[in-house]
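In the previous chapter we treated chains in isolation. Here, by contrast, the input contains two separate entities that must be folded as one system, with a combined length of 587 residues.
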Amino acid sequence: MDYETLRFLAAPFVASLILTGIHAYLGVHVVERGVIFVDLSLAQIAALGSTMAMLLPFTGQEAHGPWVYWTGLAFTFLGAVVFSTVRVRRARIPQEAIIGIAYAVASAATILAMSKATSESEHLKDMLVGNILAVSWGEVGNTAALYASIGAFHYVFRRQFLAISLDHEKAEASGMSVRFWDFLFYASFGFVVTSSVLIAGVLLVFCYLIVPSVAAMLFADRIGPRLAIGWTMGTVVSALGIYLSVMLDLPTGATMVCTFGLVLILMAIARTLFLRR
Amino acid sequence: MRILSSLRAGTAALLLLLCAHPLHAAVNVVASTEDMAALTREVGGDRVKVDFIGRGYQDPHFVEAKPSFIRTLAKADLLVVVGRELEIGWLPPLILQSRNARIQQGADGYFDASLTAKILEIPTTQVTRAMGDVHPLGNPHYWLDPDNGRRIAEAIATKLAALSPPDAAYFRNRYADFDRRVAEAAKRWDAAMAPYRGLKVVTYHRSWPNFCDRFGLDVVGYVEPKPGIPPSPRHTLDLIREMKRLGVKILLVEPYFDVKTPQSIGRETGAKVLVMPPSVGGEKEITDYIGLFDYDINLLVSAIKEAGAR
C-alpha cells in the first residue's frame, strides 16, 4: 500500500479503534444481560425520532440539522425508559420480545414517517447504513471526546453497572435502585450506539458490540481478561477488515462484518484444539 | 303538439349538452416523474389534468408503490413515461394493477417521451449484469438538455391533440409559446455556461450526460464504480488520484444519494461537492422545466466561481 492509500485509510482505522474501545466494553454488559438486539432497537428508535423531527415545520427539514439530532437522542432516552421499566421480576414475557417488538414497530413507523416527509428524507435511508470509509477527522475527534466521557462515567459507577449485569436478582435484593441504574445504562448505551451507527452502520456496530465479547467468553471468565481479549480481537479484525476491503475492492462495512465472523470461527476452532476443559 | 315537440327538442338538446360535456372535459394525464408532468402542463394548459407518481426529490430508479398510485393510474387517459427502462423497477406492476386498458404498454394512452429525444450512451455491445445497472436502451436522463425538453413537449402536444382533436390548435399554440420561451432562456443559459466550456467534472451517477454535452462540461469520472453500484474503496482511491491529476474541482451529486463518500473525496481532492437536483421538484423553488435549468445553472456557476475552477 502506498502512502496516499494509507493516509486515506488512517481516519477510518482510528474510528474503528474508538468503536472497538467502547463497544467491546458495553458488549460484555449486553451479552451478560442477554439483551443482544437492544442496540438495533435503540438505533432504529433514534432513526424514527430523527425522521419525525423532519416532519415538524420548524426544523426546516434539514437532515443534518441540530433538531434532527436532538430529537433522535430524545427518542433514544424514551427507549431507555421503556427498556429499563419493562423488566418486571419473574416476568413471563422475555425482555428480548419487547426489544424485538420495539425494533419492528420503530422500523415500520420510520417508513411511514418517511413517506410523509418531503425532500431530504431520502437521506434517512442512509442513516442506518453508515460508511466507515468516509469518516472525517472531525467526526473522529468528536466521537472520541464523547465516548471518553461516557467511558469515564461507566468507570466511576462500574460497581453498580456490573452488579446489575452479572446478577440482577442479587442486585435488587441488596436494595439498589435497579431501575434507575438500568435507565442510566440504556441511556448512555443508546447515546453511544446512535452516534456509532451514523459512522459505521447498524451491522458493523452490532458486530463491534457482540462478537469481541462472545469471542472473549470462549477463553476467559473474569471481566478483566475478557475485556483484554475483546479489545485485542476488535483491533486485529478492524485492521484486517479494512486491509481486505481495499485489497479485494469490496464494500468496507460488509467485509469487516464477515471478517468478524471468520475470526470468531477460527477462535472457536482454536479453543477446541488447544483448550480442552 | 307543438309544445310537446319543442319540449322534446329542448330535452334532446339538453341531453346532448350533458353528454357532450365529458368530451370537452380535461384529459387525465399521469406522468411517471415530475419532469414529464411539468412538460405536459406546459403544452396541456387548462385542457389537461396532470398527476405524477415519482417526485422530483426521489430517485426515479426506485419509487416505492403506494395504493393511491394505482387509483391515479386507473382513471388516466394518458400515461407519459420517461422510458429507456428508467422506471422498469417499479412502474410496470403499477400499470398492470391499475387494470386500465387505455394506458397498458402498447395502447394508445401509453406514451414514451424518449422516442423523439436525442439519446446518449446507447450501448454498442451486449449489455450484461456485470456492467452494473446499465440501461440497454441508452441513458434515460435525457430531459436535462433543453433541446430535448422542446422535442418532448412537441411530441406530447401531438399526442394530446390526437386524444382530444377539438383542442388540437390550443395545444399547438401552447407548444409554440413554450418552444419560444425555452429557446430564449437557453440563450441565457448558454451564455452563463460559455466561459466554462471544457471544465472537467465528476458526477455520482451517470445522470448528467445530456446536460454536460449541451453545456460543454467534460465528465471525467463517476463516484459509482458501475451504474447503480455503491462506491468501493479501490475505485474511490483511484478516482481521488485521477481527480488530483486532472485538477477536478467540481463533484456533482444527485440529491437522493448519500453525500458521505463524495464529501470524503472532496476533502481529499479539494473539489467542491455540489448537490444538484436533476428534476423539477428536486427543490421547493423548482416548479417548472425552465426553472429547473435556471436553478441548476445558477448553482453550478456560483460553485465554479467559489471553487476557483476557472
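Chain A touches chain B at residues 4-5, 8, 115, 118-120, 122-123, 126, 129, 131, 133-136, 245-246, 249-252 (CB under 8 Å). The mean pLDDT of chain A is 86. Compare these points with the single-chain example from earlier in the chapter.
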